[in-house]
Task: structure prediction
Amino acid sequence: MAPSNGTILLLKGLTKTFSGHNAVDHIDLEIREGEMFTIVGPSGSGKTTLLRMLAGMETPTSGDIILRGTRINDIPANKRPTCMVFQSLALFPHKDVGDNIEFSLKIRGVDKAARKAKALELMRLLRLPDHYYGRAVNRISGGERQRVALARALAFDPEILFFDEPLSALDYKLRKTLEKELKDIHRETRKTFVYITHSLEEAMVMSDRIGVMRDGKLVQIGSPQEIYTAPTSKFVSEFIGDVNVLPVAVLPSGRLKAEAIAHELVAPTAANGVGRTGYLVVRPEFLRFIEKPGDADNHVVGRLYNEYALGSRIQYQVRVGELVFVLEKLRHEAFAGGLDQEVIIGWNAADSIVVPDT
Ligand code: ATP
Result:
């Protein structure tokens, strides 16, 4: 866990308007000292525009950016104690690894021996072998270049590091490795990291807190666990991958009525004011095949029509009238029967949540 001391960065009503459209729309946010905060959202939701304003590369239309109590709206990027790590690996291609990492130290007049010592220290932190120091950056791999870019940013010793989708150009396996390494580096350096990505999966692995963006607004802020288990909207629940989302009406009794399901369903939050209609959300791993209706708080009867091997898990699709339910089971819990047969699937009320229409 990050040491959530005070607030390092405070955003108040931060807005950026392009041609009459709010790309970033009245964002209020507190980023805590030393935390890894990830902004996640679909393409066009305003992540890059928000990050560019924080880094001083874009001027806000209105609102304030306050760094440790000082308004920094008008301070240019190169005068801010912050640094951006880009997806596009903005390294000097013909310089060697050492020169790239030492760039900011050289500008500050740090002598050669001290620069080299710092570069080697950062290379070790980033798991780059010492003999890469004199190697041209165009002779190392994409993943290694990304590590050099991060070492260069850390050499600047910024108070906050901003990351603009730094891993999105890398292949899956390397991305997964670097996600974990980045989390380790965050822990070791204790710096504040603000990261943007369109992948909630990536955000989940690394972050202390996540802010989900939609149409220029932050629609939910929470820990990875909160975002996963307690989404406050259909949008957030669906953003995280396969999920069962069922339109429901909340009955006066607090029980739920879903179209295409003859009997009523139960869910914990249904009674306390979600409104007349909403969505029942159940994650695929919480559904299970059951023998008879009473074996779980809720059940539906359907036809198993597809299964997919997902590595360690198996995904099943069950058709219930017009609806499709998705279940995921570990291999040792695999369904014993074959495809195209009638099955009963069930889930416990406590493993579901009801979210409003919006
Ligand atoms: P992506 O994940 O695709 O990078 P994003 O979430 O980072 O998307 P932004 O790049 O911040 O989204 O864009 C938000 C909105 O602002 C989009 O509608 C985009 O077209 C618009 N926009 C961004 N920059 C400009 C600009 N310089 N001029 C006009 N419109 C812009």
Remarks:
- The domain at 242-355 is CATH 2.40.50.140 (OB fold (Dihydrolipoamide Acetyltransferase, E2P)).
